[in-house]
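2024-03-11 09:14:02 DEBUG pipeline.ingest accepted 1 chain
2024-03-11 09:14:02 DEBUG pipeline.ingest length=478
2024-03-11 09:14:03 DEBUG pipeline.predict start
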Amino acid sequence: MIIPVILSGGSGTRLWPLSRKLYPKQLLALTGNQTLLQQTVSRLHGIENVGGPIIICNEEHRFLVAEQLRAINVKPAAIILEPVGRNTAPAIAVAAEAAIAARKGRKNMDTLFVLPADHFIANTEAFKKAVVSGASWAQQGKMVTFGIVPNTPETGYGYIKRGQKLQDKVKRAKLDTFTVEKFVEKPELETAQKYLQSGKYYWNSGMFLFQADRYLEELGEYAPKIHEQCRKAYQNITSDLDFSRLDKEAFIACPSDSVDYAVMEQTRNAVIIPIDPGWNDIGAWSSLWDVGDKDNQGNVLIGDVFMHDTHNSYMYAGNRLLATVGLNNMVIVETADAVLVAPKERVQEVKEIVNRLKAEGRNEVNLHRRVFRPWGSYEGISVGDRYQVKRIIVNPNAILSLQKHHHRAEHWIVVKGTAKITRDGETFLLSENESTYIPLGVKHRLENPGVIPLELIEVQSGSYLDEDDIVRFDDNYG
């Protein structure tokens, strides 16, 4: 069986202001109606003998990941939470431990198909053909990676140089496959041009196929400390609702390293399959221009955009009218609380803005104005001296914690749906256009007992209005 391992731990800072720490790019719908995570899982449909995916993510994203999988009717084999980021080699190691544990005595070894959660692939049929071909080599004990056939001298990707062509003795592989001669770092432009002209170098896609047991064998040989700590972290794994939590102490003690450095550059069994499936790692705003649908002037337009004499630009209007005059090769991204304007060739430098925001403790690096919670979301509408107004949406059958506040009172007005209110031991229902008042210091709870989302307006008043003024007595989500 092929077990997809989806690596979903990134923060996507180069796509700020749309991608934020607590709502990163893999959880955003950037190239269609589905999010990048959903697209990654969905393109596996139709490949024979593929099991439920193992998702590796961090604790902050767990409910968003689970909800996005539920929305496309995918039941994961596991959602494993990393207590800290330790790069790809440890993440794959714990996924391999999970796959072996789930085998429960079966002799046939499962093949792990390792995929980043945030890549774009235009040609899914070419992708599927490559997976089938790679699985054949993985079943023969090879450590398979996929090299993207380059079409430009790209300096932002690592490269892999192919070696000798392999002969497939079992005759199941459909694509040419080569030994791996070497991995190389991101090159200078002149070197990248030579790589392109040689025809022997490919972009490193970050996708891999190998048997779970074989990966742990190789890891134990070349990175024994990672293997040891990941084994300890998985041995003491605990369950929390639909999630699996690794042992924090053991995982923190694990060295941080990529699968490339830890295994693929060391092993004598690495092979590469060159593919050209319309791949893009969506590493910057210019990447979204590359893969987007363009108008007659070469512009990619998202949202309410009016233009005059504007060409070859990417424009994203999330909340209001965006108007441009006389622009060329620009990126403009508008969200509720931030606007980015940059020449297309300099969008990689967005990370410098993100670093400054972090240094100054600005919340725009972490959150959107709309904040997602396991029960729904809330969005700030207005803030003033001693008051704050929020729009709250509660999912059907969801319930907030039983709580109280020391410094604020709240007014709730139901706009849509039905609210079940617990207030100071009393329980009652509110429907549209009805309201209630929660005095300072009173225990209260909000629930949606209906089948449609509950929407309400919350008006807070008091001397202190930040989110840490919450005393929780009971919470379904921990």
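2024-03-11 09:14:41 DEBUG pipeline.report The longest strand covers residues 201-211.
2024-03-11 09:14:41 DEBUG pipeline.predict end
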